[in-house]
TrEMBL record:
Belongs to the cation transport ATPase (P-type) (TC 3.A.3) family. Type IB subfamily. NCBIfam families: ATPase-IB_hvy, ATPase_P-type. It is found in: Cell membrane. PANTHER family: CADMIUM/ZINC-TRANSPORTING ATPASE HMA2-RELATED, CADMIUM_ZINC-TRANSPORTING ATPASE HMA4-RELATED. SUPFAM superfamilies: Calcium ATPase, transduction domain A (SSF81653), Calcium ATPase, transmembrane domain M (SSF81665), HAD-like (SSF56784). Residues 118-217 form the P-type ATPase A domain. One of its GO terms (molecular function) is cadmium ion transmembrane transporter activity. GO terms for cellular component: plasma membrane. InterPro entries: ATPase_P-typ_cyto_dom_N, ATPase_P-typ_P_site, ATPase_P-typ_TM_dom_sf, ATPase_P-typ_transduc_dom_A_sf, ATPase_P-type_domA, Cation_Transport_ATPase_IB, HAD-like_sf, HAD_sf. This is ATPase, P-type (Transporting), HAD superfamily, subfamily IC/heavy metal translocating P-type ATPase.
């Protein structure tokens, strides 16, 4: 966005009034005091007329504000012929208004940027291959569009070829991202590379950016409750000021003292510092990828004590992934996944997308299926390489190994997709909705920011809900809740404290509307939730909610501080004026200084308040690198678990020992080098962001334990080069295998939650994590 040019007309009233006051001073010192007083009187009158008109209109609308004191002070200055004091008051009022306008322009520039970048038209391909420019409202779902270099993506869509995008306006992430053909992109992002084709998924009115723009328009148009709070201050402050002025006049018999009290009590710009702080907070949370609907919502967010969160899409990634593939005895894991993904390529089901995504991530070659049929609720059937494959529910009586798979899936809270052919089940793919890597860290930060009670509300099964709740560390969990029950829970909590509700689905919309502050995970495209929410996370990172809470509390604290300190200083000055120690002219200059002080203090809300530490670019690169390597480690872990199960159930099978030797080889060649590299490079780099090198000491201890268990498995193999294991060795070997599986999984989860979630550029939860 190009820099904004200064419009001198915005500062013209203050400039002209200041020049007039200085001209009067020049005349005064030049010996023409009568003319100087006329100039100052004119300045006072020029300021009085619009202020009086504004005050009359407010009183007509039954609004009682602090402008009343400014009007009385100007009138009093004219009556007692303290024209210089009146002129200084006029400059003070203009200065306050000018500073308010400047602060609001600066604080809301990010919100304005969203409005300014809103696309108005799109390039659309015609059926005969030409390109036409059409108004945005004429773009329909399915249209093929062209996005040129530097263009703003007009609607939500699917890219037709690789594209390099700047998503900072929508997500807050500064790093350019590359989207491959077939990936979805949100409207509002900027094409930072060559032109590309886009297939529209939504109309302009339903797209992501349109919803963000609507929120931005409302955020800039509404008035913060802190402004109304200032008016409530006026209800007590104005009578108090008049009382002090009246007492000073009555006791001393000097009307001049009453005018002096009114002069120092003129707090028009003073109480404008509170909305400046709130609007500054709105701007900052917008830069962090959280668009708050208005200042009132931000102020409530800063007072919140209870947070209710949906599970799916909020604490979890919101899209299932293939966590484990279990095969029939003697089966091939990769072949089972390949067959399932090949059949599911044509299915629109969310589970089908998870299978296809996992197979492609593992580099498996998919085959185009034939004779595909889909029966809702039962699964998909098709031929792959001439072989009939069924993916979905398991028909008939399952074999013994399938019973164990079902029990494992139930205990782990995972969904099961069975893969079968004409001869029976070939294997099962266990799907899970993984907890967001940043969820536990975010929950801790939310507690540190002042939220006393964190509750998970979900429609999922109690066992799965409890597992997620224990993982992220919330205080309570309500499972199997219908949308109506979610609303009832929100109402119950809202009766005790200011409550925030976070969700992403259509079923969350009523609960979001009921909460004091509803927050929608807008990056997932949940339009219904975003439309009723008071705030939208435009980036798919839950930790940005913690940022928003911290910024909201900081902005509210600065607002209250500015009002309190400014009012206290004004009261001290009023007392001094009442006893005759502060004449009107000196009081006017003093009040000017007080007002400027508190407004500048309010601008502090544009910075500070966040608790997290910045991560250096080199450390970000290391976090990206080792987070990506976790996919490979997980694949070895799956082999490890299968081998352990094989050794536990069929230790004498011909394939048992070869499988054990292969998994040990991969542990030595792939997993241990990964752990050693983390120890040498990543952990020392994290000492700064985490505060000290001791922060990674427990992870280093886990590396030692992982190496010990791998050596223990290798020791069993080295003792028996003939390929035979004694029965009495099996318990110790199985303890090492299952122990290594548990330690490695816990170690990886801790790294992802405590370390990898530090990376601010990691805007998405990868499918493989």
């Amino acid at each position: 966005m190009r820099p904004r040019r200064v419009d001198w007309r915005e500062w013209a009233p203050l400039t002209l009034l200041t020049l007039a006051v200085l001209a009067g001073a020049g005349l005064w010192f030049g010996g023409r005091r009568g003319v100087a007083e006329l100039v100052w009187a004119a300045v006072t009158l020029v300021a009085l007329l619009p202020a009086a008109w504004t005050t009359v209109r407010q009183l007509w609308r039954r609004q009682f504000g602090v402008d009343v004191i400014a009007v009385l002070a100007l009138v009093g200055a004219l009556l007692v012929r303290e024209y210089l004091a009146g002129a200084v008051i006029a400059v003070m009022v203009a200065t306050g208004q000018g500073l308010e306008d400047y602060a609001q322009r600066r604080a809301s520039r990010d919100l304005r940027a969203l409005l300014e970048r809103a696309p108005r038209q799109a390039r659309r391909r015609t059926p005969d291959g030409d390109i036409e420019v059409v108004p945005l409202d004429r773009v329909a779902v399915g249209d093929r569009l062209v996005v040129g270099p530097g263009d703003v993506v007009p609607v939500d869509g699917t890219v037709e070829e690789a594209a390099t995008l700047d998503e900072s306006v929508v997500t807050g992430e500064s790093q350019l991202v590359t989207r491959a053909a077939g990936e979805q992109v949100a409207s509002g992002v900027v094409n930072a590379g060559a032109g590309f084709g886009l297939r529209a998924r939504k109309s302009a009115a339903e797209s992501t950016y349109a919803g963000i723009v609507r929120l931005a328009e409302e955020a800039t148009a509404r008035k913060a409750p802190m402004v109304r709070l200032a008016d409530r201050y006026a209800a007590a402050f104005v009578p108090f000021t008049l009382l002090v002025a009246g007492v000073a006049w009555a006791v001393s018999g000097e009307f001049l003292r009453a005018v002096a009290v009114l002069v120092v009590a003129t707090p028009c710009p003073l109480l404008l510092a509170t909305p400046i702080a709130i609007v500054s907070g709105l701007s900052r949370v917008a830069r962090r990828g959280v668009l708050v609907r208005d200042g009132g919502s931000l102020e409530l967010l800063g007072r919140a004590r209870t947070l209710l969160m949906d599970k799916t899409g909020t604490l979890t990634a919101g899209r299932p992934r293939a966590a484990e593939t279990v095969v029939a005895p003697g089966g091939d894991r990769d072949e089972v996944l390949r067959l399932a993904a090949s059949v599911e390529q044509l299915s629109p089901h969310v589970l089908a997308a998870a299978l296809v995504r996992q197979a492609r991530a593992q580099g498996l070659r998919l085959t185009e299926p034939a004779e595909v049929t889909e029966e809702p609720g039962h699964g998909v059937t098709g031929r792959v390489d001439g072989r009939l494959v069924r993916v979905g529910q398991l028909a008939g009586e399952p074999p013994e190994w399938a019973h164990r798979v079902r029990e494992r899936a139930e205990l782990a809270g995972r969904s099961t997709v069975w893969v079968s052919d004409d001869h029976g089940p070939l294997g099962a793919i266990l799907l899970e909705d993984p907890v967001r890597p940043d969820a536990r860290r975010t929950v801790r930060r939310l507690r540190e920011s002042g939220l006393d009670r964190l509750v998970m509300v979900t429609g999922d099964r109690p066992r799965t809900a409890r597992q997620v709740a224990q993982t992220v560390g919330v205080d309570d969990v309500w499972a199997q809740c219908t949308p109506q029950q979610k609303v009832a829970r929100v109402q119950e909590e809202s009766g005790r404290a200011v409550t925030v509700m976070v969700g992403d689905g259509v079923n969350d919309a009523p609960a979001l509307a009921e909460a004091h502050v509803g927050v929608a995970m807008g990056a997932t495209g949940a339009t219904a939730s975003a439309d009723v929410a008071d705030a939208v996370l435009t980036v798919d990172r839950l930790d940005r909610l913690a940022d928003a809470v911290e910024i909201a509390r900081y902005a509210r604290r600065i607002a209250v501080q500015s009002a309190t300190v400014g009012m206290a200083l004004a009261v001290v000055a009023m007392v001094a004026a009442a006893v005759g120690k502060l004449p009107p002219v000196a009081g006017a200059f003093l009040q000017e200084g007080i007002d400027v002080l508190v407004i500048v203090n309010a601008l502090r809300a544009l910075r500070g308040g966040l608790r997290h530490r910045d991560v250096p670019p080199r450390t970000r690169e290391l976090l990206d690198r080792y987070a990506g390597e976790h996919d490979g480690v997980r694949e070895v872990l799956d082999r490890l678990r299968d081998t352990a199960d094989l050794m536990a159930t069929r230790p004498d099978a011909p394939e048992s020992l070869p499988a054990l030797r292969e998994v040990h080889r991969r542990l030595v060649d792939e997993v241990l080098p990964h752990e050693a590299a983390e120890e040498r490079h990543l952990y020392p780099a994290l000492a700064g962001p985490l505060g000290s090198g001791e922060a990674t000491s427990t992870m280093s201890r886990a590396h030692v334990e992982i190496g010990r268990l791998v050596d223990r498995i290798g020791g069993h193999l080295a003792q028996h080069p003939d390929g035979r294991l004694r029965r009495d060795e099996l318990p110790d070997l199985l303890a090492a295998l299952y122990g290594l599986d548990a330690v490695l999984r816990l170690h990886m989860a801790q790294e992802e939650e405590d370390y990898f979630s530090l990376n601010p550029e990691d805007g998405q939860t990868p499918a493989g994590r």
